[in-house]
Amino acid sequence: MTATGDCRSDAFDPSVDVALKRGNRNAKWSKHSPDALPAWVAEHDFRPPPSVTDAMAATVERGDFGYHDIEADVGAAYARWTAARYGWKPDPEMVHTCVDVLQGVTAAVTALAEPGAGVILTPPIYHIFLQICPTARRRQFEWPMRCDPELGWTFDPDDLEALLQREPDARVLLWCHPHNPTGRVADARVLQRIVELAHAYDFYVVSDEIHADLVYPDSSSPFVPMQSIPGAAQRVVTVTSPAKTFALSGLRCAVMAYADRNLRRRVREAHPPLLLGHAARTGIDATIAAWTHGAAWTDGLVTHLHRLRDHLVDRLRAEVPGTVMHRPDSTFLAWLDVSSYGLGEAPAARLLQQAGVATSEGTAFGTNGDGHVRLNFGTSKAVLDRIIDRLVAGLQSLG
Fold this sequence. Notes:
Layout: H1 18-23, H2 27-30, E1 37-38, H3 50-62, H4 71-86, E2 95-98, H5 101-112, E3 118-121, H6 132-136, E4 139-142, E5 146-148, E6 152-154, H7 157-166, E7 170-176, H8 188-201, E8 204-208, E9 236-240, H9 243-246, E10 254-257, H10 261-269, H11 281-293, H12 295-319, E11 324-325, E12 333-337, H13 347-355, E13 357-358, E14 360-361, E15 372-376, H14 381-398
Parallel strand pairs: 1-13, 3-4, 3-7, 7-8, 8-9
Antiparallel strand pairs: 2-10, 5-6, 9-10, 11-12, 12-15, 14-15
């Protein structure tokens, strides 16, 4: 056994031990009553590959939990992972760890947009992003997504430029790539236009790429790292983690990556050196193992989620056709329009009460969230079918 795992049987296992999840006080499974089926928080239910748990166990076995000097190994592992999967290799020396993606995102946003300056969001958007501007005393601007009946949720860069012309104080675009909650993957044309606008209107892009590994083969576009776009180096900070792919959120390890030393210096020097802290040793162990040995396991996960996504779409269209779901390019999250069922201003609360399914309230995701719920389908097929059964029964009775 080594610090990065011994690669024993790293095939993906689609089973879910519900009793273990509830007994271990997993937040997804313990927030609501034991009678409710959870489909809310963005975390899948699958156990990470043995190489990840073996790497953590090796540190536990040695009993050495003191200070360490292995943070640089995370940057090297990340560079190898992105080179193999996306054909883009960052300089490992330009990558540093942080505690989690939200910490890194907030650090970059507040470093690049001074108090009172504007930060652009793309609603409907990951609801925690909506907390950053009010608490950090930044102005919040919106580049709303468009919803096409055929194409689903899309980005129009012309709308972004119109916003920038109206709001010259915008200094950061907080970019969710792939997008949560819609699952949209922006194509290279959109990314290139964003970079060109960043130079023209003097703003920076903080790109949260935590869902990058979870893009489906039939996506409208393959995932393209934002920093791989020509001209992005001086304008883009990437923040990511293996947490969504491998369900490691509790281990507290993420990375911030740069392609320009001046930009890296500006972000790092904007905060007191001791404020942001360091990633945990076990989180680093798990992260290095995941990015070193987790490729085949990740491929198995995506294959499983792909089947579940299509199964969910097929059942909803057949059994509750009033529900609108545009097939997501990525993530294990479904953005459902249930407005035709007259569930009121809080459809997720109504579905929890009437159907016993815990989803996320659409209004929490800001503009464009009315009448929607976000449903997590990252579980076993057996659990997902129980969720769908309840959802269908609840919508049919309420509708």
